[in-house]
Amino acid sequence: MGDGKRARDIKREVASELEKAVEFEKADLAETRQEWHDQLRNDGAQLAADVARDKEKVREALDDVRHPERLAEAAEEKLAQAAEDVREVAQAVEHPSEIVAEAKHVVAEKKVAFDETTATIAAEFTSPTDKKRLPAVLRVFGVLLIVGSGVALPGIGKAIYQAVTMFGSGAMSGDGISTIVVTFLHLAVLVALAATFIVFGVRLLRNQRRWAALLSYGLYVLLILGGLCSIMLSGMSIDLVFYLVMLVLTIALQSYLDPTLLEERRAHRKAREAEEHKEGEDGTLGRDPTGKGYIALNFFNLFWIFVVASVLGLIMEEIVHFLFVVPGQWQDRAGLLFGPFSPIYGCGAVLMTVFLNRFHKSNWLVIFLVAAVIGGGFEALTSLFMQYAFGAVAWDYSNMPGSLFGGRTCLPFMACWGLLGVVWIKLLLPFMLRLVNFIPWNWRYVLTTVAACFMLVDAVMTLQSLDCWYMRLSHDPVDTPIQQFYDHEFGDTYMADRFQSMTIHPSDAVRGK
Question: Can you give the residue range of the structural domain that contains 252?
Answer without folding.
Answer: 136-257
